[in-house]
Every structure is written in structure tokens, then in C-alpha cells.
Amino acid sequence: RVLGAEVVRVPAGLTIEIIGDVDARAKADGALHLNQFENDANFKVHLKYTAKELDEQLMSMGLKPSCIIGALGTSGHMGAISMYFKSKYGDDVRIIGVEPAPNEVIPGIRRVETGMKWFHWVKFDEIVDVKRDEAIEGVIKIARNEGLLIGLSAGAVVHAFTRIAERPGVYVLVFPDSGYKYVEQFEEYFTTKTPS
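Predicted structure:
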């Protein structure tokens, strides 16, 4: 609203459930809907830039990743990261996807069975289920220890890391969002729980 947009709240639980409505509204208004769920530019840009940048940063420190962990929303960024790093290192690098646990909602990510275009193009070594409260606890952990306000999907990645990081190695955690748009979720959490 601050930028002059009309905000329309819809009853759908997942963005993917209303893509048809968004497409119809865009056509009616003469607008362009880029559709990150189906637009191959999503995957290609992450392959060309995101994955390459991660690799360059690791190489600049003389590091080779043991494991890369990221949340699954469209599967664009993690699919591209998997393709890039599996092509370079094969199974020497583990690729871990993070999804909401059954019957849980974590904004920005969804379960694999809801349909992800690029997920099946590549190899994931493991999928970790995370509950909403666990994702929020991951956000709190990073905020208090690192001074960064990450988003809920990033918090889910943190929680997944705490579960799987048993062996020493170079772990890369992908944080695709910030926490600023989740204020209502944090408020709800803090009114019902006392974080540790």
C-alpha cells in the first residue's frame, strides 16, 4: 500500500492455489504476471548467478561445500544450486531441501507433493520436514547470535541444519528471505510461547 498498490487478501493457503486467478487478473488489467512457479527464468537465473556466486565465495575462502541446505518454495534456487554443485562435485556434496512438516504452514515454502517444476530435474539427497515453531526458533537463534533478522523459510533451514549437522564439514545455509514481513507470525509466537 505504501507504494500505491491495491492489496487483495485471498483465502488460499498456498500461492500456487491462486495462480490461475492471478493470471486472469493480470490479463484483465493488461499486466504481466512473471509466475515464478513456472517461469524457467527462475531456475536459469539462480543457476547462472546464485549458484555461481556461492561457488565463487567458497573458492575465495579455499572451501569446498560438504552440504548445502535450502528451503523449497518454487524449487528454483535449490534446484539450480543442486544442478550446479552436483555437476561440479557429484555426490561429494549433499543437497538438502527443507519443507514444512505435514499439516504445518511456513510462509514461502511448501511440501514437495504440492508440485514443484524444477525439483524433479535434479538430485536432492534428503528432504527435512520442519514445524512452524521450529522455523521461528531458528529465526530467534540467528537474530540473537548473529544480529540478523532472517525470515521463516530461512529459520526452517537453520532448524534443519541443527538436525543434520552431525559430521564436521563445510555447511552452506541459504537464507532467501528476511523477517520483516513475518511480524504477525512472530507476535503470535511470542504471545503463546516463551522462547529459550
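Summary: The domain at 40-188 is CATH 3.40.50.1100 (Rossmann fold).
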